[in-house]
């Protein structure tokens, strides 16, 4: 077994994904094929233990709980009120409502964890208002598409959970490591908007200045996401709870807010359950498939083989990471977040750690790359979602044009993170008990 | 099928909810009163094993198992139909494999009276049987769907096959989400009118 075979199998897998085979099936198909070819029928017998091991993993229990928490906040309309509140507070900055887009997207995506729901909700509310006030269209659309990607970086993040479970790293540390990069990236997006606004002068300011009474009242809409964030991340940061426990606390808190809003009903709960089950089933089946493939990869020593091969080029960590950025940019054009993660992490992770890359830092790096994948055509889910929400039905090229500067910002930010790894690593080092 | 999906979805949801209550109670008691109920994380693992197995079927019936549709909708109708058939049949094969290997695990646990390496020393046969039941349901549901798809294919009902088994296009998912946003908005307007 050599490098060539690994590449052939990888591209076969890629081809199967692209013709539309279910992602989980591609993973397990390659795993079982490779395992049975190399080890014969006894390989099948070892699958059962792997599957039970994955599904019985308490860490992964956080996946359905975080999804459920987001669903309850979403279906009960608690998350909807955030936009109104943020627009009152951020609407007067240069760039106006566009800041509201970015701020709201990051907050909304972080609490609900769904970029689809984020773009649908924020887009529905925001785009008509933005058109009315004459904001430049590509920028308005781009800020929505890019803002929606922040949710997979800002914790609680399912993407980081999956990375942690695939690589056996502390989810708590990964979550905490995502906070500062998430906030910095949001800040950079806003800076860009303000700068672009100063240059183009596009978009009238909000003519009406909200009164202070209105402002204070609007803050009520921001309480739920902030409380959720403090409970979930606070309990993790101070070592009070494991991610699964904090997810459980998050679910109960979300229920309380839904009750306060008088939206707590069996109908609402059952809708949230159904969506949570659909999403959990999809994610977990892919993870099960990925672990079966991992079993084959580790039995065959593929990771060691690839690591040896890459190390033989004698690249520095920085050079290697730049090669990876290129690789992920190309892959990100064709795959979406989950498939990128499960297809690349098992190989990329041992390579990077072999040249002394930090495992936690690399998790943030992968998630940044996945964020870019969400907004790079032809397969960039967020582009299509924003295009689907816009009321004026213009060409999708406008969305892509507006998103491009944000992609560049993300790339610059990635390079900054390579130069200053502390951006991601400082906060987790301050954590209690580490 | 929709009724089965709704039922499984509810069982899944209430399991998650019950677990949340239990785990929260455990966490608060442990921190506030230094009393540990022990085993909440063990229970969390079992809950995930059973609930996620049920969720596999829910996701299958809702066509949520993710497929990349970059090329799919550009292909000729006949090729689309073939791929859709292949997708559901391959999922059924995967589900069959899961149920089959899970059965061996349960059989072993019964034979060796295996217990969990935890303070509870749970006889593994209980959680594993439920887990197996979930996976067996997934296998049966996917087999029924695969047979249905095969029947469509043999009868040449390509249109029907694609309607029932094509990957969920982003436009369709978005439509569902937008409908949800609108219904929340009208609710709020209705409330304001009261």
Please provide a brief summary of the model.
The complex is a heterodimer of chains A (about 425) and B (about 190). Helix content of chain A is about 80%, strand content about 0%. By secondary structure, chain A is mainly α.
Tell me about the biggest sheet of chain B?
none
| Unreliable parts of chain B | none
Order of helices and strands of chain A: HHHHHHHHHHHHHHHHHHHHH
Shape of chain A: globular
The shape of chain B, in one word, is: flat
What percent of residues of chain B adopt helix (DSSP H or I)?
over 70%
Largest sheet of chain A: none
Radius of gyration of chain B: 22 Å
Run of helices and strands of chain B: HHHHHH
Question: Can you offer a commentary on this structure?
Answer:
The complex is a heterodimer of chains A (434) and B (194). The two termini of chain A are 41 Å apart. Helices cover 78% and strands 0% of the residues of chain A. Chain A is built from 21 helices and no strands. With 434 residues, chain A is mainly alpha-helical. The radius of gyration of chain A is 22 Å and the shape is globular. In chain B, helix 2 packs parallel to helix 4 (125-154). The longest helix of chain B is centred in the middle third of the chain and has 36 residues, at 77-112. The model of chain B has no long low-confidence stretch (mean pLDDT 87). Classes of the chains: A mainly alpha (434), B mainly alpha (194). The interface between A and B is large, with 78 and 78 residues.
């Amino acid at each position: 077994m050599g490098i060539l075979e690994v590449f052939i199998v990888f591209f076969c897998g890629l081809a199967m994904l692209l013709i539309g085979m279910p992602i989980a099936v591609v993973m397990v198909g390659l795993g079982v094929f490779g395992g049975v070819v190399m080890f014969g029928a006894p390989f099948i017998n070892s699958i059962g233990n792997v599957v039970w091991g994955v599904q019985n993993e308490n860490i992964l229990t956080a996946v359905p709980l975080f999804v459920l928490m987001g669903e309850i906040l979403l279906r009960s309309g608690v998350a909807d009120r955030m936009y109104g509140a943020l627009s009152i507070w951020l609407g007067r900055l240069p760039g106006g409502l566009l800041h509201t887009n970015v701020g709201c997207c990051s907050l909304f995506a972080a609490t609900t964890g769904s970029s689809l729901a984020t773009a649908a909700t924020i887009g529905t509310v925001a785009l008509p208002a933005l058109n009315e006030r004459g904001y430049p269209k590509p920028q308005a659309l781009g800020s929505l598409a890019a803002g929606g990607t922040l949710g997979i970086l800002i914790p609680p993040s399912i993407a980081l959970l999956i990375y942690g479970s695939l690589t056996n790293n502390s989810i708590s540390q990964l979550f905490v490591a995502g906070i500062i990069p998430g906030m910095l990236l949001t800040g950079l997006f806003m800076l860009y908007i303000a700068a672009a606004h100063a240059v183009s002068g596009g978009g009238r300011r909000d003519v009406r200045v909200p009164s202070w009474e209105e402002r204070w009242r609007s803050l009520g809409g921001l309480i739920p996401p902030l409380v959720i964030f403090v409970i979930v991340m606070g309990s993790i940061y101070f070592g009070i709870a494991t991610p699964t426990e904090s997810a459980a606390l998050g679910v109960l808190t979300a229920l309380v807010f839904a009750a306060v809003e008088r939206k707590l009903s069996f109908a609402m709960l059952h809708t949230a359950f159904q969506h949570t089950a659909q999403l959990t089933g999809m994610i977990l089946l892919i993870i099960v498939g990925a672990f079966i493939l991992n079993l084959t990869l580790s039995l065959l020593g593929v990771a060691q083989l690839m690591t040896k091969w890459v190390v033989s080029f004698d690249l520095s960590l920085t050079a290697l990471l730049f090669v990876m950025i290129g690789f992920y940019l190309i892959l990100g054009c064709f795959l979406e977040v989950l498939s990128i993660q499960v297809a690349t992490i098992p190989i990329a992770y041992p390579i990077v750690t072999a040249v002394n890359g930090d495992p936690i830092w690399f998790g943030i790096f992968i998630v940044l790359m996945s964020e870019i994948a969400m907004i790079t055509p032809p397969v960039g889910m967020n582009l299509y979602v924003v295009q689907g929400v816009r009321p004026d039905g213009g060409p999708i090229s406008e969305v892509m044009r507006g998103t491009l500067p944000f992609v560049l910002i993300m790339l610059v930010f990635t390079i900054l993170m390579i130069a200053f790894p502390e951006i991601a690593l400082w906060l987790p080092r301050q954590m209690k008990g580490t | 099928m929709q009724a089965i999906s709704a039922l499984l979805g509810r069982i899944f949801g209430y399991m998650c909810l019950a677990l949340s209550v239990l785990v929260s109670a455990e966490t608060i008691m442990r921190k506030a009163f230094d009393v540990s109920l022990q085993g909440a994380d063990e229970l969390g693992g079992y809950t995930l094993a059973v609930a996620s197995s049920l969720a596999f079927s829910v996701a299958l019936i809702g066509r949520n198992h993710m497929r990349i549709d970059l090329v799919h909708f550009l292909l000729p109708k006949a090729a689309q139909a073939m791929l859709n058939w292949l997708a559901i049949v391959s999922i059924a094969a995967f589900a069959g494999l899961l149920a089959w290997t899970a059965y061996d695990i349960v059989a072993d646990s019964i034979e060796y009276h295996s217990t969990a390496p935890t303070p509870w020393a749970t006889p593994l046969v209980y959680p594993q049987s439920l887990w197996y039941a979930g996976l067996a349901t997934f296998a049966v549901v996917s087999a029924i769907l695969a047979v249905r798809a095969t029947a469509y294919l043999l009868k040449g009902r390509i249109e029907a096959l694609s309607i029932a088994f094509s990957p969920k296009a982003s436009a369709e998912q978005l439509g569902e989400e937008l409908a949800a946003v609108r219904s929340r908005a009208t609710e709020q307007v209705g409330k304001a009118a009261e």
